[in-house]
Amino acid sequence: MSYEVMHDDFMLDKLNEECGVFGIYGHAHAPDLTYYGLHALQHRGQESAGIVASTGEQFLSHKGMGLVTEAFANNALEKLSGKHAIGHVRYTTAGGSQLVNAQPLIFKYKAGNLALAHNGNLVNANQIRSHLERQGSIFQTTSDTEVIAHLIARSGYDRIEDSIKEALSMIKGAYALLFLTENKLIAALDPNGLRPLSLGKIGDNYVFSSETCAFDVVGAEYIREVEPGEMIIVDEDGLHSERFTQQTQRSICSFEYIYFARPDSNIDGINVHQTRKELGKKLVREFPIEADVITGVPDSSISAAIGYAEESGIPYELGLIKNRYVGRTFIQPNQELRAQGVRMKLSAVRKVVEGKRVVMIDDSIVRGTTSGRIVNMLREAGAKEVHVLISSPPVMNPCFYGIDTSTREELIAATKTVEEIREFIGADSLGFLSVEGMIDAIGREDHAPNNGHCVACFTGQYPTEIYPDTANCVDK
Ligand code: SF4
User: Fold this and answer.
1) Measuring CA to CA, which residue among 200, 372, 359 is closest to residue 286?
2) Where along the chain is Mg(2+) bound (predicted)?
3) Given the CA of residue 255, which atom of ligand 1 is nearest to it?
4) Per the annotation, where are the binding residues?
5) Is residue 401 lining ligand 1, measured as CB closer than 6 Å?
6) E strands within 265-423?
7) Of 310, 358, 259, 263, residue with least CA distance to 13
8) Alpha-carbon torsion 304, 307, 313, 318, what sign?
């Protein structure tokens, strides 16, 4: 029997975040705090982690594959020192999972060294890469982020801020960026603010993080979001803000609220757990169901299930339990035993569901295979009826902004009707939250389209230009 280590179906049947970034300026324990910050952002990327620290004169760095603890095994953190640091956690699909693609990237520019950590994905990376290659640039990685590094390195400005601005004026797509020079920390967010990036402070020292949950871990106080089109520079003179474009329109990824971000994070001032509860409450209004018990697929759907239970008055129960000690990848004997993979991740609680009409809340259906197995698991545990409600609209289009969606053909909602999906997963009924219901539940007041959210994977209306080869820019 041949064995291979592969991504389990449970993860393949979810959208996966591709990165998280953390940075701190002027703190005596900058590398250690960055390590803790990355730990808090681990859910945003589990395939590699890296930190670059600056002593003010030189960079010290370490990158490794795996979880933060694995990447920094064997006391690797002890080799880092300096008062400024940036870090990165990364997720990729198997093909791009190489140390050479791990971040932060370090490269030389006119005045010295620059380190770069990127969350998001560029939609015109291939075009720029081909152009630069024709002019003699040689790329070391397959990552779209390296395109930004080359553009900065080729720029002739004296001030690094001006070189970065010039590079940012040429790239399109999603980018929450942290740059580190020997004595400056610079944060920049794309004109749509597609990915989150927050500013905080520990004492007199500024920190940036993809999510505010990392601020809580390192004892930082939240100050504000980095704004779309804004560049924040922190150096020995303190903090100041510049715009690299005035043409901005917020389109923050709605999936950050639905699934990606940690429940204790606040994104743009809106708490993720509370939002998920509201999504569950909206589901009651759109799909009232007579049932005995509400359960959620752990962990990300529990908040929505609690919201559904609160609004409907039907009790919430732990009908499904997650085995926390199964890693993201594990040895699977063969295709036929893949169903076993879901059973290793999740178990139904027979005493809770036996003889009951169960409403099972999940945050999304991507390919549908896992949902079918969970419905089956609940039936095997004696559930009389299984109704599936999804706290997001059907995902029908790929994401080009740093989320690993399957191709359109693999997205079940792109090829099947809701009734066909219901039949495929074997549920008694199936409902997806409407786009309007979702936007309403998040509750952001913004004059931008969709109240300032990206909803492209649901509607196909992308907030940026999409180029004929954009799909190939997605970093795999
Ligand atoms: S397409 Fe979907 S997953 Fe991608 S940024 Fe937009 S809302 Fe988020």
Assistant:
1) 359
2) 300, 362-363
3) 8
4) 253, 300, 362-363, 399, 454, 457
5) yes
6) 266-267, 270-271, 293-296, 320-322, 329-332, 346-348, 357-362, 385-390, 403-404
7) 259
8) positive
Regions of the chain with pLDDT less than 70: 1-14, 16-17, 92-97, 326-343, 405-406, 470-476
CATH code of 281's domain: 3.40.50.2020
Please state the residue numbers annotated as binding site for Mg(2+).
300, 362-363
- The whole-number pLDDT of residue 304 equals 98
The pLDDT, as a whole number, for residue 335 is 52
Q: According to the model, what pLDDT value does residue 289 have?
A: 97
Parent domain of 373? 272-445
Query: Which residues on neighbouring strands pair with residue 348, listed in sequence order?
Result: 320
Give backbone dihedrals phi and psi of 91, rounded to 5 degrees, phi first.
Answer: -120, 135
Which residues does residue 105 pair with via DSSP β-bridges, in sequence order? 116
CA within 13 Å, CB half, 466: 14
Q: List beta partners, residue 208.
A: 23, 199
| 148 and 51 share one domain | yes
Ligand 1 atom 2: the closest Cα is on which residue? Answer: 457
Answer yes or no: is the C-beta of 255 below 6 A from any ligand 1 atom. Answer: yes
Q: Whose CA is nearest to atom 4 of ligand 1?
A: 399
CA torsion angle for 454, 458, 459, 460 (degrees, to 10)? Answer: 80
Do 94 and 229 share a domain, yes or no?
yes
Predicted structure pTM score: 0.92
Degrees, nearest 5: CA angle 358-375-356: 25
Pair 157, 283 in one domain = no
The H-or-E segment that residue 379 falls in is helix 369-380
